[in-house]
Amino acid sequence: xxxxxxxxxxxxxxxxxxxxxxxxxxxxxxxxxxxxxxxxxxxxxxxxxxxxxxxxxxxxxxxxxxxxxxxxxxxxxxxxxxxxxxxxxxxxxxxxxxxxxxxxxxxxxxxxxxxxxxxxxxxxxxxxxxxxxxxxxxxxxxxx
Length: 144
Known about the structure:
By secondary structure, the chain is mainly α. Helix content is 56%, strand content 0%. It is built from six helices and no strands. It has helices at 15-31, 37-48, 54-67, 84-91, 94-114, 136-143. Helix 1 (15-31) crosses helix 2, helix 1 (15-31) packs antiparallel against helix 4 and helix 3 packs across helix 5 (94-114).
């Protein structure tokens, strides 16, 4: 990705995103669960770096697209521990991270369109993904 194309875009991580990721790390440490090592790595990037690059911004936005339907309602009623989904959601910046990353991706896509570059990468659904055996072996079988 050309840096010149994105020179007018601010890749700074907002403090609200930083704080949500920090809270996610604290909850993960306290409860010993929630999120994966990859989720934790993203939270560490969000809490320790000042900026992200275009690739990471798209990666963060894709997380929210994949997990928006999963319940991440919060820490539970009363004294209940937070759900794993809620902790993972926070590790990616929580609701502020979703808003920020989606706005950033819109700006990236707009810059790509202005430069004549197709940035839309379709993520295939589970039903569209090839199953094992649908590769070369299936092609050879179809040719027989």
